[in-house]
Amino acid sequence: MADSRNSFGAAPFGRQVAGWAIDFAILLGVAAILTWVTHYRIADYLTSVPDLAQTGAWDVLGAHGDWGGAGKAFGRDVVDQVLSDVIEAFAALILIAGAYRFVSLAWKDRTAGQMLLDLRVGPRFEPERALDIRRSMVRATVSTVIDVGLYSVACIALLEGEFALSFVLWLAAVVVLLVNAVLLARGRSLSDRIAGTVVLPAGLYERSWAAAKDNAVVQRGIDRAQTGYVQAQQVTQAMRSTAAQLGDPAALQQLRESEQARQLLDRAQDAGRRGVAAARQAAASDASKQAQQAARKLGASALNAYNKRRPGGDEFENR
Q1: 3 state DSSP class of 109
Q2: Which contacts (CB < 8 Å, 24+ apart) does range 127-132 have?
Q3: Cα 207 to Cα 179, 214, 251, 288, distances in angstroms
Q4: Cα→Cα distances 173→148, 152, 153, 253, Å
Q5: Terminal CA-to-CA distance of the chain, rounded, Å?
Q6: pLDDT for 198 beyond 70
Q7: Residue 317 banded pLDDT, cuts 50, 70, 90
Q8: In a 10 Å sphere around its CB, with 0-12 CB exposed, 13-18 middle and 19+ buried, how is residue 279 labelled?
Q9: In this structure, which of 187, 282, 297, 306 has its CB flanked by the most CB atoms within 10 Å?
C-alpha cells in the first residue's frame, strides 16, 4: 500500500530536495579540499624523483642485465604511489560524508541543509521524539552510499583496473539515485524507509516569526500607552492652568474682555434680536390675524350658546 504524505506529515518535496542540495554542495566543497590536498601530496612525492631515480639506478645495476624489468618496477612504484594517494582521497570523502551526516543527525536531528530549510528528521511513528543512535547511524550510512559512496567506490575500482566492476557500480549508483528521487517525491527517501524515519517541518522559523510579531504588537501597545500617558499629562496640565486662570479675578476679567468673549457676546445678542423680530413678524402676518379673528368668533358663539341654555337667559338677553 502506497504511503500518503499527509499520513505522516512529511515535509514538501521541494524543501527536502533543497536541503539535500545544500548538503551535497557541502560535500562537493569537502571533495575540492581533498583534491587540493591530494594534488600537493602527489606533487611533493614527485619532487623526490631524483632520489627515486638514484634508487632505481642501483636497482638496475643489481638487476643482472634485466634492465627492462628494473625500469618497469621503478615506474610501477611511482604509479602505485600516485594511485594510492587518489584512492585515499576517495576513501576520506566517504568517511567524512558519513561522519558529517551521523554527527548532525545524532546531535541536532538534522543536517546543515535541513536546518537552513527549517526541517528535522524524526522516527516515523513517533515524529515528535529525537532520533536514537541506531536510526542516526543507519540513515547516515544509507544517505552516504547514495550520495557519494557508490560513485567513489566505482572510481576506486576504475583506478585499480577493475573496469567491469566499475561499470556495474556506476550503473548501480545511477539506478539508486533515480529510485531515491521517486521515493522522495512520494514523501520519504530510500534512507528514510530503511532507517524508519521521516523528514518533517521543524516550524522554528514560523515560531520565531510569530514571536517577533507578538513582540512588535506588544511594543506598539507600550508606545501607544506611553504616548497616551504623555498626552493625558499635557491635557491635565492645561486644565490646571485654565482652572488657575479662572480662579484669578484679574484673569477672569481679562478673559471676559478678550476679543473671543466679545465676539461670542455679539453673536448671542444678534441671535436674540433675530428671534424677537421673527416672532413679531409672525404675529403681524395675515395668517396670524385670521387666526385671531377666528378665535374671537368662536369665543362669541360659545358665549351666546351658553346664555341661551341657562335659566332666564332669554330674559337677561331681552333686558
Answers
A1: coil
A2: 127/8, 127/9, 127/198, 127/200, 131/105, 131/106, 131/197
A3: 35, 10, 61, 81
A4: 9, 10, 10, 102
A5: 128
A6: yes
A7: very low
A8: exposed
A9: 187
* 154: Cβ contacts below 8 Å, ≥ 6 apart: 166, 167, 169, 170, 173
Grid coordinates belonging to 116: 537552513
E-only strand ranges, 110-223: 119-123, 197-201
| Dist. CA 203–CA 287, nearest whole Å | 85
- Residue written as cell 573496469? 163
Percent of the chain scoring above 90 in pLDDT: 43
| Top-confidence range, 77-86, 215-224, 294-303 | 77-86
**Cα 92 from chain centroid (whole Å):** 37
Ranges of beta strands (E only) in the chain are 119-123, 197-201
Cell 557508490 maps to which residue? 150
With H, G, I as helix, E, B as strand and everything else as coil, classify residue 287: helix
Q: What amino acid occupies position 56?
A: G
Question: Per-residue confidence at 204, pLDDT binned at 50, 70, 90?
Answer: confident
* CB hemisphere CA count around 294 (13 angstroms): 6
* CA distance readout (Å), 213 to 81, 116, 201, 224, 278: 62, 21, 20, 16, 65
- Name the one residue in this structure whose C-alpha cell is 583534491: 35
CB 23 within 8 A of CB 148: no
Comparing C-alpha atoms, which of 141, 167, 200 is closest to residue 7?
200
CB distance 120 to 139 below 8 Å: no
